[in-house]
UniProtKB/TrEMBL annotation:
Keywords: 4Fe-4S, Iron, Iron-sulfur, Metal-binding, S-adenosyl-L-methionine, Transferase
MTTase N-terminal domain sequence ranges: 1-114
Lineage per the UniProt record: Bacteria, Bacillati, Bacillota, Clostridia, Eubacteriales
Descriptive protein name: tRNA (N(6)-L-threonylcarbamoyladenosine(37)-C(2))-methylthiotransferase
Physiological role: Catalyzes the methylthiolation of N6-threonylcarbamoyladenosine (t(6)A), leading to the formation of 2-methylthio-N6-threonylcarbamoyladenosine (ms(2)t(6)A) at position 37 in tRNAs that read codons beginning with adenine.
Record Pfam families: Radical_SAM (PF04055), UPF0004 (PF00919)
Amino acid sequence: MNFNIITLGCKVNQYESQAMREDMLKNGFLLSDDRDRADITIVNSCTVTSVSDAKNRKILNRVRRENPDGIVILTGCMPQAFPEESENFSNCDIVLGNAKRAELVPSIYKFLEEKQKFVHITEHIGKGEKYENLSVSSLGEHTRAFIKIEDGCNRFCSYCIIPYARGRVRSKSLEDLKAELIQVAANGYREVVLVGINLSAYGLDEDFDLADAVECACSVDGIDRVRLGSIEPERMDKEMIARLAAQPKFCPQFHLSLQSGCDNTLKAMNRHYNCSEYAEIVTNLRNAFENSSMTTDVMVGFAGETEEDFNASLNFVKSIGFAKVHIFPYSRRKGTVADKAPNQIDPQIKEQRAKIMEQVCDETRREFLKDQVGLCESVLVERLRHGYLEGYTKNYTPVHINSEDTSLCGKIIDVKITKSFDDYCDAELV
């Protein structure tokens, strides 16, 4: 039997889909040549917003329509967060929660034998829950490997459903991480990105921390670059920063989640820092790393956000000078505190604020890229496209290199950055 996996959402979901893919292949299933048709279709869902749920259902409807006799499997965050909403499962034959990916193949065999819908969702038990030790050996055609090292979140931000979908903080052991990294390096990956649901909290449930994971990754022969996925400001103290800066392989790119540049809004969001503390962390990172880049997420139109609050956020974001910002209007999420909050913002006002914020962030993006011109940087080459090589510097500046030498793909080379544009830089081989 052949199969397809459709992945929605974050890098953690992508990693988990790869782990399921390898498990299926190991058990004799074949990857389908047709992206739209397969004997088995696995939908790995995201539930970060209500829009995500609607997208999940739309995909499930399409898969069932195009594969009326196929086996449709739903897994991921949506069934875990909302197990009682059976309408989400109407087009599914098998439904697995976030802690049951190891049951994927046995569930398929059970369905083939019994021909009955199978729903297996176990509620997260909180403190003491064990980390689901998935592992991967490759990541398709990517030049970098995303390695999940942490699951769960203890923060309970007022807008977020993820602690209910993912449970509390759990961490991969350093021994298991080292073994996985050795395998990934043996398969030719030069760069790894450590990812998690709340990556900064890695080791919070154990006696190690994120710096230990970075040091572990940097110690593996064949891995030349190590970078982090999205991190929360928590635990990014001077000691942590100093340990990261001591690793030559570590890439100085920090996606440091902000959400709002207004203290009133941060408090309403139940974020665990204020703007002053956030700015201090950014300063400490820039002092420790030469030519580092800061990227972030910013939400506009949160419940109760006044015009004054929005302008405060706008000015703070501008003052930091981010290299790139992901901007999104607040989306109400059933099951969260913020969904029931008064003074919800009109959708048109949200969109207006998002456009204003985008204009400011586009300018700081251009300024960051201008600052890269004239620098000599190392680039991991990813591919040849439109007559030039594409890749990223250590601080994740996207670069177009004036060369068509495909033998350089997958290699780290030195370039000089010659020109900047709105979203990338041109470079010449050194």
